[in-house]
Amino acid sequence: MNAVPKIALIGSGRMGSLHARVLAQSNDCELSLLVEPREQQGKEIADRFGCRWAEDFEDLADIDAVVVAAATPTHYDIAGRVLDLGKPVLVEKPLAATYEQSRDLIERSSAQGIPLMCGLLERFNPAVRTAKEFVGEVWQVNGIRHSPFVPRITTGVATDLLIHDVDLAIHFVGSQPSVVRGDFGFFHETSKANRSEDCADTILRFDSGAIATISASRVSQRKIRQISLLEADRLIEIDLLRRDITIYRHVDEELPADRDGYQQQTIIEIPAIRYSEEPLAAQLRSFLALVDGTGDADRERASVLPAHGVVDEVTSSASVRTA
């Protein structure tokens, strides 16, 4: 491998353009090739970030690793082709359009000994990274991930939004849920026609006794990205947009002898966020560690399927309820 790995980026839409910027700005790799079937779009992005453009790819002989940021329905085919060429690959979430396809890619990656990573980006949010350093036993998780409607996104919120907070809940609790229930809502005519859900609510129960309630919506009137973690003696609230943390500790409650009224005392702490790195840049650094062999490829593979499996169960549960 080259001292600085050469990266091919496949896809140049909204997320692809963001990946292109981060790859081009990195001192630890070189954005060498952009693969984009739309010639005008591809050439424009390639020129902007100083790399070659190609409509498709074949052998990738001069490429060390690949980032896939194409449309979700194409993930399985593209990632499979990359794995067959023996190249490490980072695929935007979800790993593939179905759980079965995602599992197949993981199994192929493992059998061939080729690193594979899924772009579950909230893992690299500075507030999440900071919270992971001090969070203990979690009793309850509440996640809200709401967004205004964006017509260009045709897939449902389960794989687009819900999967992020499911993944965070699994990581903070420390195990996969044993019970999964969920319901979907369909409101736009296009959503009803292609069964791409506009909102999803799910409840997860873990063997430890912990529970998680997670709400995702693409028909909200404002963007919300929040997750709260309840422990025995504190509540940890993480705002994923502001990238900050607030901790609440309930101290006392009493009825004062000298006046009527109910009084509560709560200590509020605002921990310093220990990281300032952009999530995409932190994710890239983690991927490059897999590429050069310093990262744990087996551990990374094992971390991908749990959230995908839960989303699949939620989808099956919701489908039964709405059938």
Describe the structure.
The chain is an alpha/beta fold. The chain has two domains: 114 residues, 3-Layer(aba) Sandwich (Rossmann fold); 170 residues, 2-Layer Sandwich (Dihydrodipicolinate Reductase, domain 2), CATH 3.30.360. The protein has an eight-stranded mixed β-sheet. Strands 3-2-1-4-5-6 form a six-stranded parallel β-sheet, with helices on both faces. Helix 3 runs parallel beside helix 4, helix 4 packs antiparallel against helix 10 and helix 6 packs across helix 10.
Task: Briefly summarize what is shown.
This protein is an alpha/beta fold. The protein has 2 domains: 6-119, 3-Layer(aba) Sandwich (Rossmann fold), CATH 3.40.50; 123-278 and 309-322, Dihydrodipicolinate Reductase, domain 2, CATH 3.30.360.
Topology at a glance:
Blueprint: E1 6-10, H1 14-25, E2 30-35, H2 39-49, E3 52-54, E4 65-68, H3 75-84, E5 89-92, H4 99-112, E6 116-119, H5 126-131, E7 140-146, H6 157-173, E8 179-185, H7 189-194, E9 199-205, E10 211-217, E11 224-230, E12 235-239, E13 244-254, E14 263-269, H8 279-292, H9 297-302, H10 305-322
Parallel strand pairs: 1-2, 1-4, 2-3, 4-5, 5-6, 7-10
Antiparallel strand pairs: 7-11, 8-9, 9-10, 11-12, 12-13, 13-14
Q: CATH topology of the largest domain, what is it called?
A: Dihydrodipicolinate Reductase, domain 2
- Total helices: the number is 10
> Please, what is the average pLDDT?
93
CATH superfamily of the largest domain: Dihydrodipicolinate Reductase, domain 2
| Reported CATH architecture of the largest domain | 2-Layer Sandwich
How large is the share of residues in beta strands? 25-35%
Unreliable runs, pLDDT <50, ≥5 residues? none
